[in-house]
Amino acid sequence: DKKLDFNIFDIITDKWKKENFHSEILKFLLENYEVFFNNFLELINIKNKEEYLNAEITNEEARIDILIKSEKKAIIVENKINWAPDQNEQLARYYEKIKNGHNGEQEREVEKIVYIVPSKDKNPDAQTFGEYEKEIKDRLEKIISFDGSKNDLVYCLEKSRDKLKENLENTKNNFDSEDFNKLFFINHYIEILKRTGVGDMSEVELNFFKEIMEKYKTDKDIFKKINYIAEMCSNNNLAKILNDYFISKLGMNNCGYNKEEGSYSCQYWLDYNKDKKENAFSITIHSYKISKVHLTLWDNNENINNILKTVIKKEAEYLIKEGLTDAGIIFNIPDEEDKLLDLVSKLKKAFDEFCNS
pTM of the full predicted structure? Predict the structure, then answer.
């Protein structure tokens, strides 16, 4: 359920951005995972799933991205996940070929024409229907790859994935099983789908807005706060907001903006030998636009281990375990906010005690 540390599809560089890739992946899943196949038929409103029990699934037959064929019926799947435009009378040509038979194929009733898009704003071009406008529109099912609703392709995949999880739990998490391989594959593909194309998050945004309104409906300043959040996001001002927040929360000093890194930073600085000004500690929090902050420790001798050994003995074990080096530690906000605030408070206390001793 969390973001993956790496994605297997990223290893094959930019291939996942190509339209054919998605068609091949979907064909593979439809052919090899019955639960997903049935969930997909449900998603596109197929009333009689039994019709497709022994269906044949092809890629690029008659140049159709995915074609699902039963003995008498067919489902045309046109993949526009990467915003590809419609070719001249494209859906009309596909519909006619399947309806009338092509290259020796038998005639089949086209039950559905599925149009997979990255956003609700992507619609078939008017010219794509040709002379079959009414027939195609009557059969058309527009499916959004990801908009956070229960009618998108990602939800269909997640529902299918959850069945795999259930199967794995029943078999005591057998990682060598076929179910585990499918789970791995689907998880990685879901993540790719969520960042393919522009994506439409309107459903997610709407649900979030309703949740906020319900939770804070008695707050007289609720709309001021909502506007503030909107302004923060639209101006990419998150780094400064985070910086100001840590200053107010931890009593640190503002260090300003680093244009090269695109980060703000705040610092807690202590001289531990006032007669020799070169002896000093600092704790610095660097805030970025991506809800990520970077904690670094420094002394004038640039010797982190010296700080750990002489000043923050209690916290040293935790910091070493977390991988503290001269480069510091990264915290994800808000997930690790409490962890960061607690640690910095302990470090400040340890520095203060050392300097006053």
Answer: 0.58
